[in-house]
Amino acid sequence: MDAIIQIENVHKYFRGGIHALRGVSLEVGKGEVVVIVGPSGSGKSTLLRCINRLEQYEEGKIVVDGIPLDSAANINAVRQEVGMVFQSFNLFSHMRVIDNLTLAQRVVRKRPLEEAKAVGMDLLAKVGIPDKADAFPAQLSGGQQQRVAIARALAMNPKIMLFDEPTSALDPEMINEVLEVMLDLAREGMTMVVVSHEMGFSRAAATRVIFMDEGQIVEQGSATQIFGAPTQERTKAFLSKVLHH
Amino acid sequence: MKSNPKKRVDAAPKTIISITGNDPNMRMDAWWWLVAAVVVVTFLLVVFQPDPYQRILIYVLDGIGLTIGVTVISFILTLIAGMIGGLGRLSKNRIISGAASLYVELIRGIPLLVQLMWWYFAFPAIIRDTGKALNIGFMANYLPDGTIMAIIGLVICYAAYMSEIYRAGIQSIPKGQMEAARSLGMTYVQAMRYVILPQAIRVILPPVGNEFVALLKDSSLVSAVALADLSRRGREFASNQALPIQTWMMVALLYLILTLVSARIVGWIERKTKFER
Question: Which residues between 142 and 181 in chain A have a beta carbon less than 8 angstroms from any beta carbon of chain B?
Fold first, then answer.
């Protein structure tokens, strides 16, 4: 299996001396869907944000698609190949939906406007809201905004997609519409790293589930294995708190 | 890891401040009445009391031109310098942010009038003394251009305040906007240009508009460095003709017209650029 993401012994300290990541190593293969679970403060989002270097790390090494994250130029090259979806959507609120989708295509990929628009409209159709191209983000529901955010990341034709708690800020009735889009992506063979406690998604799509606690990977395995028969005490304790719903 | 607040968000964070007041259109009407009243009073004075009001107006007319010219040029330069200062204060580079902070703190602690004196009298004297000491002819005989020195003084002073406005405006845009832009592969400059500044500018428009009006009024201080602006021309007329009451009333009315009309234009631009529905 070719590893498209290689994380080697990464340490991250926050200001105030908090040791957020304590020597995390992880390899993600091409086409894998890795779901990271763990309690709040376990370092799962931090680890995800290290992959496209939105977060600095003090020690260790990360290589994405053969490019080490060690210079400004490399970091930017990696970011162009790695899409990210945030908990709070982060759509550009002064732009219409279609302009959200075309901006990076135009200024980063240097695509002509017509081509960028065509790509954008295709993706809006794919996420099920082609009629919202001219709306502003504030006019959309949370679920619609998150689907636009996914389409915006896909418009760059990324090789990897990172999802940072993509459904945590959504009302319950909107969670499924976002998960459906993510499931479609997984079926198409997209490499995905997902921080989420949506067990249904993990069972349906995850090739691997990773349990993190206190800045370390405690346990990993298939969804059935981690959720059904965890071997570590910390995993059991955590799952007993979240599994009842 | 800092735990993310798990709050439910149905819409994107509301970052755009709303302009105070419930119904902007109503307020617009009320303020235009005031502008109209001031214009009518001035018009009546000039038409029905041409002596001295029409004479005053004709005498100070070129001063109005200079006041507007100096204000507009200084303001445009202030917008540019203030942006550089604001971005400088936000820089991660400690030397840059330190220098920007030092500039803002120093300038804000010195009265504008003193700064103008400094640029017009002290700065040229330093150049001349240096020229003499080093035997450089053109420096030893340096004479400042009043208009340029006045504009430099106004810009350097106002840019300090403006950079604080830019800084606050940029900081009011949620961090996620920059992260989203950078995660799409945009450079810092691209993210600033296409994502952060367009949003920040809408936030800072009201305070920036206030700065324009304040600058228009403070430009009267350039009369102290021998510039023939509206105030200076008024002072000349008042002392030549011994008509202090009428002259200063006319000058005050003319300033009022300028400031009230600019404030209305600023308000109009604000409404035009509002995008949050």
Answer: 142, 145, 149, 152-153, 156, 165, 168-171
